[in-house]
Amino acid sequence: xxxxxxxxxxxxxxxxxxxxxxxxxxxxxxxxxxxxxxxxxxxxxxxxxxxxxxxxxxxxxxxxxxxxxxxxxxxxxxxxxxxxxxxxxxxxxxxxxxxxxxxxxxxxxxxxxxxxxxxxxxxxxxxxxxxxxxxxxxxxxxxxxxxxxxxxxxxxxxxxxxxxxxxxxxxxxxxxxxxxxxxxxxxxxxxxxxxxxxxxxxxxxxxxxxxxxxxxxxxxxxxxxxxxxxxxxxxxxxxxxxxxxxxxxxxxxxxxxxxxxxxxxxxxxxxxxxxxxxxxxxxxxxxxxxxxxxxxxxxx
Length: 300
Fold this sequence. Notes:
This protein is α/β, with parallel strands linked by helices. The chain has helices spanning 43-50, 70-73, 91-102, 109-115, 131-143, 161-176, 188-194, 212-215, 230-239, 263-272, 287-296; strands spanning 3-14, 17-28, 32-36, 58-63, 76-79, 149-153, 180-185, 197-202, 205-211, 221-225, 243-249, 252-257, 279-283. α5 packs parallel to α6. The two termini are 25 Å apart.
């Protein structure tokens, strides 16, 4: 898969603050790539640099295999902050102004309004739009030039649950048209539900990157008790070849199995040792718990 954006050793320092520290990531063509991290992790700084509005202190980046230029910028649509639309103008009238600023023909506006789900509300004044509609119009403004890549900074920030759902679906719909999307977010749920690839940042440093499915591929946690003392359960678990981790948590044993091993096999293995487990509970490891493990790791 071709790389749309390649970032190599990117750094940015503001006085004594190292906002970005030797960041290197690759954004595949056709992906929805999420930059995930807490506030102050360097996400917005990264987007500002690759959009050529912030000068890096070191490192380099390439769009479409080329240094940033007027030609590459024409292939990118971006929303770093919500545009200042005119409240007493309609959605369509506001997009006409945006199109004039971008040098885009007005013929693109009807299709763009349909794409962002505002075709039927194009003649309504902007001040009457919900927060979700306002954000969709802003994304529409970024789409006016029919860019190959869409860059979004915290696209669901400040929205209510309905607005978040609307913008999430819009991002998926846009990606389905073959566009590559690069977005920054501190919302774990957003990245999990929308993105195909992700990079986790903390204090300007890269902690993990890759397909979301691989970063979140950590096996489920299994909790067992009953049938024998906890100490005996722990001893048996640690002797089983398909158990990768086992330790005591209160009066239970927490177990992680090798990839592809089912909890039923664990149950059978204990039964073969003469132990009929009183309880076996499988818990999905949440994105939140894995995210916290990643950003707290000293070396990633």
